[in-house]
Amino acid sequence: MTTRQKVVLAVAAGRAVARARVAGKKAAKRLIVAADAALVAQGKAARARQRKRAMKAALKKVAQTLALAGTAAATVVAVRATRRAVRRRTIETA
């Protein structure tokens, strides 16, 4: 192999290494962008789950409040009915 051939081969090898380095950097950048996109998607999904949990908790609180209010209203109605019944009995017996 002549010196000139060795130089040409060395230059070609250097160029190949440089191209591989550039391609590797581009691939790494693409990989980073894809990983960031996946993290963003997971973040959106996590926020959606948090919103669903908050909505479920709010609905549960409303249901508990309504149940409590319903129980209180039923108690008031029952007490009034009992008072009316007692008044009727006292009027009938008097």
What do you see in this structure?
The chain has 94 residues and is an all-alpha fold. Helices cover 97% and strands 0% of the residues.
Can you describe this structure in just a few lines?
The chain is an all-alpha fold and 94 residues long.
Radius of gyration, Cα only, in angstroms? 40 Å
Q: Tally the helices: what do you get? A: 1
Mean pLDDT: 85
Give the distance, in angstroms, between the N- and C-terminal Cα atoms: 134 Å
Strand content: under 5%
Question: Which structural class do the helices and strands define?
Answer: mainly alpha
The helix-strand sequence is H
Give a quick account of the main beta sheet: strands, pairing sense, barrel closure. Answer: none
Poorly predicted runs are none
Overall, the morphology is: rod-shaped
- The overall strand count is 0
Keywords:
94 residues, 1 helix, mainly alpha
Task: Detail the topology: elements first, then pairings.
Layout: H1 3-93
